Amino acid sequence: MSAQVKFTLDETQIPKYWYNIAADLPTPPAVLHPATQQPVGPSDLESLFPMELILQEVSTEREIEIPEPVRDIFRLWRPSPLIRARRLEQALDTPAKIYFKYEGVSPAGSHKPNSAIPQAWFNKQAGIKKLTTETGAGQWGSSLAFAGSLFGIDVTVYQVRCSYDQKPYRRALMETYGAKCISSPSTQTESGRAALAANPDSPGSLGIAISEAVEIAVKNPDVKYALGSVLNHVLLHQTIIGQEAIKQFELTGDDPDVIIACAGGGSNFAGLAFPFLGLTLRGGRRRRVIAVEPAACPTLTRGKYAYDYGDTAHLTPLVKMHTLGSTFVPPGFHAGGLRYHGMSGQVSQAYELGLIEARAYQQLACFEAGVQFARAEGIVPAPESTHAVRCAIDEALRCKAEGKAETICFNLSGHGHFDMGAYINYFSGKLVDQDYDAAELASSLAELPQVAAE
Length: 454
Ligand SMILES: Cc1ncc(COP(=O)(O)O)c(C=O)c1O
Description:
Elements: E1 6-7, E2 17-19, H1 51-58, E3 63-65, H2 68-74, E4 82-84, H3 86-92, E5 97-102, H4 113-125, E6 130-135, H5 139-151, E7 154-160, H6 161-166, H7 168-176, E8 180-184, H8 190-198, H9 206-219, E9 223-225, H10 232-238, H11 240-252, E10 258-262, H12 267-281, E11 288-294, H13 299-302, E12 304-309, E13 318-323, H14 345-352, E14 357-361, H15 363-377, H16 383-402, E15 407-412, H17 420-427, H18 438-446
Parallel strand pairs: 5-15, 6-7, 6-9, 7-8, 10-11, 10-15, 11-14
Antiparallel strand pairs: 1-4, 2-3, 4-5, 12-13
């Protein structure tokens, strides 16, 4: 058995194409206009996105070329390493082999620049000089701020209030890259003012922050909007993770039996899983693929598969997805990037087709896994990523109980260096498991839009 720990590729092996799972999945339910409930066409999305990104959103081509200038920037941190967690395996005394793809090596500390760079680049090509966006964990906001600084684009980020308060250094990072960061809900937009009128102490949510950023783009013709997850083109950009991992597994001599990633809107999960699922869909071997979500925001495991809005103020198109209802505000737990009411349409579709599994965990069990991982492997995971770590550890312990030497691969989507406040709360016993409010969930599901197409 090879004792190698890190499996790396050189810069020439950065993928040249993004993998588009739409080519291998059945035709998905149409995306509908929020006012007319008719299928949206490319022109309906033009106030928000440049045409190249809209065309990616609706494309069914299996491979979409990555522009050379984008690949050139990726060289700053890609290909990211695939690492065998041998010390964690030993600590768990498991016969399982545990690998993780480490996306925390990017400048912002997570997978998010994989989409921020191409989104900023396609906007730049379309002559756009101003972008708005939302951020939950602060990772996406930092990534778009970084991308904006490379292309001379002004970036304004609406950061979910509880995350803004928990992580002042994320804001400082965005400002270092030259972006403006505003706590959401804010008084600067109609949707923000409406959310504050409904609840002056609102912790904010990704749904509200998206409404604020979209509203600014819709009202200002020189401003476009960028989303850090959920949409097809964002998932597409993240597929370089899984494509690299497939090549790296060829170096290991192993082949993953179980693939795991946390899922907020679904982008790092899809990034790792979709290229492997594509192999299966085109006749290859079947693997278990697990999306992990917080028990306090259980979109896949408790949500409905229904048409819903992507934001609280109902400015975005209607997408058929797993949803807790667009008015649902999850409790302010620490994995801010997982506090989203919906799930990407493509990930939801894969779940409905039985191609993937889903699992929900409470935050204490996740932090416990994050600490165990840090003590064995040295990397402190982002609170979002601890969900994947928890699941990988549980799968490795299952292998131990069953005496099976399976190969597990999880996505370590980011490091937690800006999240040490959460770890401080965990160590001091201040962190508690949080349940969503069942009555609030019932009422937000009852308010799902009635859609004739369903
Ligand atoms: C480190 C990290 N992992 C995961 C996520 C969840 O997002 P997604 O499901 O789009 O990967 C986020 C979102 O902010 C994040 O910052």
